[in-house]
Amino acid sequence: MSSPPAQSRLFNRLLLTGAAGGVGRAIRPLLTAHAQHVRLSDLPAALAAQVTNPAPHEETVPCDISDRAAFDALAADCDAIVHLGGVSVERPFEEILEANIKGVFNLYEAARHHGIKRIVFASSNHVTGFYRQDEIIDAHALRRPDGYYGVSKSFGEDMAQLYFDRYGIETASIRIGSLFPEPADRRMMATWISLNDFDALLHRCLYTPDIGHTVVYGMSNNRKVWWDNRYAARLGYTPRDTSEIYRDKIESQPAPPPDDPSVRFQGGKFTIAGPFDPQ
Ligand code: NAI
Ligand code: 15L
């Protein structure tokens, strides 16, 4: 995909949390088009293992985002934050509480303290995972989280709205569908987003003026979808890729029974993860 023109790199320093994760590592080479300097952060061990050979425009700063003082120091001198860091699957509540609930509180407090006015929050389709796959919803539909993980992303969206209404900090919450090199199963034929489409959406989320708090779905131009992505279209997002090119490969997989959660609910198997009883 062609890079946005250099003059669109309005931010001096962009902070990327979760830089050592799957999405963080994939998007890292593309961030040069979005800011002059990029600060890459993750937990110390993950950062050391996964984020090596920083380019001249990159710096690495380890941080546990559940530590308020550490997150505050991390955000100093940044103009915008792409927040990918946190627990990315359904897990016991105590883990979600630290990384995703406290982590998002610390994110917004750091943004307020340092005068950072634009955040892109990696929300998730699991905020609305309990809708059925034969229902079409938009980003303003009642939330139906499919687990503690979905609840934590829902909390993140509420923090984004609060910090816009109270402090004018603008956020795009991207309810990412499935951001992987290719769809892995039938469900992902609807939820998949390519890296190039995600990059294009990220650019719109960072640079479209006056977005307040806008919630969008992160999906490619897939043929059969469950999400009316009108609010992403309003940001100027036009997905170019489609899961359709993988259809034959996916449909060669054995079909699950129709009552299987993976083909019944939008959140798929997240709807049956847990409970997590204390050992
Ligand atoms: P990932 O699990 O590969 O990466 C998350 C990163 O956050 C990891 O590198 C991890 O070390 C870091 N992290 C966890 N706890 C932390 C803490 N306390 N302090 C600092 N860093 C911490 O997940 P992935 O796939 O890269 O996803 C990135 C973000 O996008 C996540 O927030 C996830 O919830 C969200 N998302 C991803 C989707 C996907 O399809 N990949 C779909 C929907 C949402
Ligand atoms: C997510 O929120 C997860 O972070 C990711 O690992 C996938 O499971 C994705 O949703 C999905 O729904 O496919």
Give a summary of the structure in a few sentences.
With 279 residues, the protein is of the alpha/beta class.
CATH class assignment: Alpha Beta
Spatial strand arrangement across the major sheet: 3-2-1-4-5-7-8
Shape assignment? globular
Provide the domain count: 1
C-alpha Rg (nearest Å): 18 Å
What summary fits the major beta sheet?
Answer: 7 strands, parallel
CATH homologous superfamily classification: NAD(P)-binding Rossmann-like Domain
Report the portion of residues in β strands: 15-25%
Secondary structure class reads alpha/beta
Low-confidence stretches: 1-7
Which sequence of SSEs, written as H and E, runs from N to C?
Answer: EHEHEHEHEEHEHHEEHHH
Give the distance, in angstroms, between the N- and C-terminal Cα atoms.
Answer: 49 Å
User: Could you estimate the helical fraction of the residues in percent?
Assistant: 25-40%
Instruction: Provide the CATH architecture.
Output: 3-Layer(aba) Sandwich
Mean pLDDT, to the nearest integer, reads 96
CATH fold-level label: Rossmann fold
Number of strands: 9
Q: Count the DSSP helices.
A: 10
Cofactors, ions and other ligands in the entry: 1,4-dihydronicotinamide adenine dinucleotide, D-galactaro-1,5-lactone
Keywords:
seven-stranded parallel sheet, globular, Rossmann fold, disordered N terminus, two-stranded parallel ribbon, 279 residues, binds D-galactaro-1,5-lactone, alpha/beta, binds 1,4-dihydronicotinamide adenine dinucleotide
